[in-house]
Structures are given as structure tokens and as C-alpha cells.
Specification:
Blueprint lengths: L8 H94 L1
Length: about 100
């Protein structure tokens, strides 16, 4: 067995004090980490809420744009129908004028 000389009490006090300081440093770092983790969790919750709202709004936009597209498609079809009818009337009138003038 080896002999361990008795240590002065101030050595144990210094060692204990250093360990206590290290523990306090670790405690501060851990509290900071926990606070940051909670902040990130809140940010993720806000991001999830915003993404759900964006999904809802995009669906409404899609539905509205489809309604608008159908509306203008119908208006466009009506316009081309009117143009075709007027063209047919004009061609018929010109045809009648030519036919009646040759008789």
C-alpha cells in the first residue's frame, strides 16, 4: 500500500470551489439551451400555423381563379358566337344582294 499524505483543508476547499464554479457554469449553459429550445418550439408552432393558413389561402385562390377562368371562357365563347352570327348575317346579305342583282 502506498502512503497518501494528508492534504491541507484549503486544498479540498479550493477543489470543491472549482467544482462548484464549473457546476454553476454548466447550469447557466443548460438554462440557456432550454430557453433557446423553447423559443425554437414556439417558432415552429408559429411556422406550422402560418403554413396551414397558407395552404387554406392557396386553396381559396385556386377555387377563385378557376371560377374566374370559367366566367371569362363563357364570355369569350359568347363573343365569338356573336361575331360568327354577325358574320353569317353579313355573308347572307351580300349573297342575297348578288343573287337578286343577277336576276
Amino acid at each position: 500500500m502506498s502512503y497518501i499524505p494528508p492534504q491541507p483543508s484549503s486544498y479540498h476547499d479550493d477543489k470543491l470551489e472549482r467544482v462548484q464554479v464549473q457546476l454553476n457554469d454548466v447550469k447557466i449553459v443548460m438554462q440557456s439551451n432550454i430557453t433557446k429550445a423553447i423559443g425554437r418550439g414556439e417558432n415552429l408552432d408559429n411556422l406550422a400555423i402560418r403554413s396551414d393558413q397558407l395552404l387554406h389561402d392557396s386553396g381559396r385562390f385556386r377555387d377563385g381563379s378557376l371560377r374566374l377562368r370559367r366566367k371569362f371562357c363563357c364570355k369569350n365563347a359568347k363573343m365569338w358566337g356573336c361575331i360568327a352570327f354577325i358574320g353569317a348575317v353579313i355573308i347572307t346579305a351580300i349573297g342575297l344582294l348578288i343573287w337578286t342583282s343577277t336576276k
